[in-house]
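Budget justification aside, the reviewers requested a transparent look at the raw inputs and outputs of the sequence design task funded under Objective 1. We therefore reproduce one unedited record. The lines immediately below are the structure tokens for a 500-residue chain.
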């Protein structure tokens, strides 16, 4: 092995470890008054590797130089008092292969509670290709080339298909709707709402994150009524329907019709055993995709489910409920780009990623940065977009971003311009809040999406002329005109908290 060399914070990193075997972490660090940043940086590296608060005799029984973490650079944060960026590197042997749980236990375990630190935030991490290769990643995932939205999945015949090929939808983003109200509907009325939305022109509908198995709607009843709604809308529209369950579980079924529709059924449950039971039920119903709340359920649960989905031919839709508790504060916590990288390793075919323009937090350049980290195979370092390390995913399948939260038809030009075609656009209130009902709301969104895609393909700048595109489409779509009138004054213009 190449010998390690001792380094000091700020002196540059010359540890003698090959890049392909090196983890690198980018921390925003706020020491307590009077505590030197070098001391805090060294403590962060030591606590998450071989160090403790005193010297112990068992240090002599191993090679500390081989296994210890190193803080190899510290730089002040511009415009902030007593705040620093600490770069920390760890050897790959400190982490169990294929375990996001072990990775996070090490790097964000005890260290965030150090008294010497006022605040600490993990902004980014570089995952070495050698470690990436120990993960299965998304069960099927988005495949290149980027010309098509190529979310592929295993059929029961063990053949790999591309999602767009299977659902026969090309050249545009996928269009969905989260059923509202998220809680309180009976299973039968829930299925009715699903039917109306799919009949109106959506590609799929979705359970919300906290729809599990409550007294007013038990999971098995919901699965059954939603399946009925799927098949009924399919028969009436001539389109085959996709069913998604929150875990969310779904299986693709063969059909000679032109399009496939679906619903994400949430299978997240109190125990892993119950979660798997719901996943198996969804599979037996013939659905192609399931849904899971990966942060509240945990990485071990999510990885187990992703492995099951790959073996069973199910797509896996991921919701990020609880993320803002972890990532929203600028000085403390974990940035969402790190959580997105963790999900790509743990496994998920779709992941909610914010909208930029809707009701939820998200700066444009930062959002585009971690969306690329989700979708692309190789991402160059670009600090203007919050990408602090070049990341090579070495062919690990990508994750399709999902834009959802406070969006309506007037947001459609911006969404198409921001996310392109490789995304799911989900309108909950923006569908179900239509004054004429659910089906007209779905039709309005479908018209708006296709009008924006057509205009973009014709060379129209949607960032500047998107409103004109929507107004022109209103002339031949009364459903869209009604939606535009209802939501013309609805905006979510608040200053972003988490900025670069």
């Amino acid at each position: 092995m190449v010998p390690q060399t001792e380094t000091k914070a700020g002196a540059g990193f010359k540890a003698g470890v090959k890049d392909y075997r090196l983890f690198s972490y980018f921390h925003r660090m706020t020491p307590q008054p009077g505590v030197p940043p070098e001391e805090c940086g060294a403590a962060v590296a030591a606590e998450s590797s071989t160090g403790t608060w005193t010297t112990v005799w068992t240090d002599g029984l191993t090679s500390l130089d081989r296994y210890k973490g190193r803080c190899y650079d510290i730089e002040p944060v511009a415009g902030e008092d007593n705040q620093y960026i600490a770069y920390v590197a760890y050897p790959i042997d400190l982490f169990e292969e294929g375990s996001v749980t072990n990775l996070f236990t090490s790097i964000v375990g005890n260290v965030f509670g150090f008294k010497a630190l006022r605040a600490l935030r993990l902004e980014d991490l570089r995952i070495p290709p050698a470690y990436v290769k120990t993960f299965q990643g998304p069960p099927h995932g988005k495949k290149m080339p980027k010309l098509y939205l190529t979310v592929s999945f295993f059929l029961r015949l063990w053949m790999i298909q591309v999602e767009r090929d299977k659902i026969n939808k090309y050249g545009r983003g996928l269009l969905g709707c989260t059923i509202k109200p998220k809680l309180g509907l009976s299973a039968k009325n829930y299925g009715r709402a699903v039917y109306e939305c799919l009949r109106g022109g959506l590609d799929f509908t979705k359970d919300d994150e906290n729809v599990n198995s409550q007294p007013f709607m038990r999971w098995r009843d919901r699965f059954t009524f939603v399946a009925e709604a799927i098949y009924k809308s399919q028969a009436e529209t001539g389109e085959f329907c996709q069913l998604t369950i929150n875990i969310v579980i779904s299986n693709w079924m063969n059909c000679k019709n032109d399009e496939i529709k679906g619903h994400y059924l949430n299978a997240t449950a109190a125990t892993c055993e119950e979660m798997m039971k719901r996943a198996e039920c969804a599979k037996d119903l013939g659905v192609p995709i399931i849904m899971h709340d990966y942060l509240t359920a945990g990485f071990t649960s999510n990885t187990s489910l992703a492995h099951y989905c790959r073996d069973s031919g199910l797509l896996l839709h991921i919701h990020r409920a609880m993320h803002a508790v972890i990532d929203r504060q600028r000085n403390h916590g974990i940035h969402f780009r790190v959580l997105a990288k963790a999900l790509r390793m743990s496994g998920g075919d779709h992941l909610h990623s914010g909208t930029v323009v809707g009701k939820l937090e998200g700066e444009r350049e930062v959002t585009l940065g971690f969306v690329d980290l989700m979708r692309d195979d190789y991402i160059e370092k670009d600090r203007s977009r919050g990408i602090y390390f070049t990341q090579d995913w070495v062919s690990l399948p990508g994750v399709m971003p999902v834009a959802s939260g406070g969006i309506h038809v007037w947001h459609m030009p911006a969404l198409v311009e921001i996310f392109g075609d490789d995304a799911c656009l989900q309108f909950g209130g923006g569908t179900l809040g239509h004054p004429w009902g659910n089906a007209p709301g779905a039709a309005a969104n479908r018209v708006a999406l296709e009008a924006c895609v057509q205009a973009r393909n014709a060379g129209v700048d949607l960032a500047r002329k998107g409103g004109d595109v929507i107004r022109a489409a209103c002339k031949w779509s009364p459903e869209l005109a009604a939606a535009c009138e209802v939501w013309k004054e609805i905006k979510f213009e608040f200053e972003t908290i988490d900025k670069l």
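The first helix runs from residue 37 to 47. The chain is about 35% helix and 20% strand. Computational costs for records of this kind are itemized in the attached budget.
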